[in-house]
Amino acid sequence: MRRRPFLDQRRPSFKRRWQQRPWWVRLLLSLLLALACVLLLAVLLGSPDPDTSPSTSAASSGSEATSSPLLSQRTYLEGITDALNMTDEMLSAGSFSRQLMDQIYLAKMYVVVAKEANNLQFVVELSAQVRRAQSILAHAAAHGGTVMEQEAEKAIRDMSVLLFQAQQLRYDISITIMKLKGQIQSLEDKSKAEAEKSTKYGQIAAEELPKGLYCLGVRLTMEWFKNPDLQRKFSDRSPAAQSNLRDNGLYHFCVFSDNILAVSVVVNSTAINSRHPDKVVFHLVTDDLNYAPMKAWFAMNNYRGVTVEIQKVEDFTWLNASYVPVLKQLQNAATQKFYFSGSGNRGTPIKFRNPKYLSMLNHLRFYIPEIYPELQKVVFLDDDIVVQKDLSELFTINLNGNVMGAVETCMETFHRFHKYLNHSHPLIRAHFDPDACGWAFGMNVLDLVEWRNKNVTGIYHYWQERNADHTLWKLGSLPPGLLAFYGLVEALDPKWHVLGLGYTTVDLATIKEGAVLHYNGNMKPWLKIGMEKYKSFWDNYVDYSHPLIQQCFMR
């Protein structure tokens, strides 16, 4: 795998960090800043130089006018007043409009503090004065004039009385600031707790089997066992169809999944966008529970002549605990308790305790050369993708002696090796660059000849065995994939594989140009929590006119 220099570890900009804060935090910080400005202005206006008398000041003003360094800033200050649309009245020492605005800022802050103290009567009085002052300013602005003394004097006096009362109620500056800091901290804690709840509930929703998918599996199972014609379509394959499964001149794709609807979208979108669908061969592997309904679905539907092979993982008897480290680890009582009872380390996020990460279907990708010993090149696809372009060109890409072709994901720092692996562990630290570029599973070109020559499966076993205590990485198939294929990955054009449609915002122009759209993340398009703005790309390849789809999903 080609290494690229680690270009950008800059922290996010102030503007971006400011916008990421909750709105109420930004409001309170703005009020604090306004309060500080008011206090500074009050100090400057109310503290004349004790060594300078009025007569001395007046006498010296003429002589200093020509020599004052402030004159050199006149143009700059005029630019500020023009940019902020300041009027002469606002700049006047006795400006009523500025006094009203300053009082409004201060009063709004005291309203927040009074609410916190449950002093509702004071909140009502102060809010009424704020509205009164705002009304005076609005009237003056609407008529293009200045705030007159007769209408502003009483408003300023009444507001001053309430602000003085706020001080007597010990809403002074130091206490107010402390309370606002405490309130900000409390709001941030609440925000963090709600974010954790959202993550937990989202993970639970992502793990659950939707009612429609369960219904589809049950009905397809019934169809399979009561309809011998469907069974004969797979048992009585023509010699040509059988030879297609081993013909290296065709385009071979493999998908490992227990989701019938998702797999049908992968096959359908590939077939529709293929220039030669009769040359496309799909190798599907599922589990025993979904084996019959999966066969029933593809026996009932024809995808433009695409050849489909369906196997179940239980038939691969050579995949046993004596050969597969993941299966050996599953026999450990502590591992079973941690991942399946949910009583493991509570400090570990719930997503890492998801049993799907130990599913054999999830790790089957590391045994592709043994599952298909006669094939030389295949394209591995996840079941949460949609194909938008013809993929035949993938089979002509020169991998330059590497085992895999994949799209790199290191445009951001969180997709580098140090985010997936524990680089404090001496084994990881000694063998891998923490800033090495990560890549994504989901659409991968695999040279099985080079795979066998370089014994990638053996490398995968080596690292899995050393991670029995989960100290090298937590869970999933990507971390061991990064280790097993380290230095053996050819970077592909990012247009081949567009990621993020299941958890983040993706540019629409990027989506339109993408060959494969990947809904990686919890918000899958077949779930209710899926991102609505991206569901249409997936829905385009679901046949909602199919009777079984209507029975299970349209009610």
UniProtKB/TrEMBL annotation:
Annotated transmembrane regions: none
InterPro entries tied to this protein: GAUT, Glyco_trans_8, Nucleotide-diphossugar_trans
GO cellular component, one term: Golgi membrane
Family: Belongs to the glycosyltransferase 8 family.
Pathway connected to this protein: Glycan metabolism; pectin biosynthesis
Protein name: Hexosyltransferase
Organism: Zea mays
Pfam families per UniProt: GAUT_1 (PF25557), Glyco_transf_8 (PF01501)
Localisation: Golgi apparatus membrane
GO terms (BP aspect): cell wall organization; pectin biosynthetic process
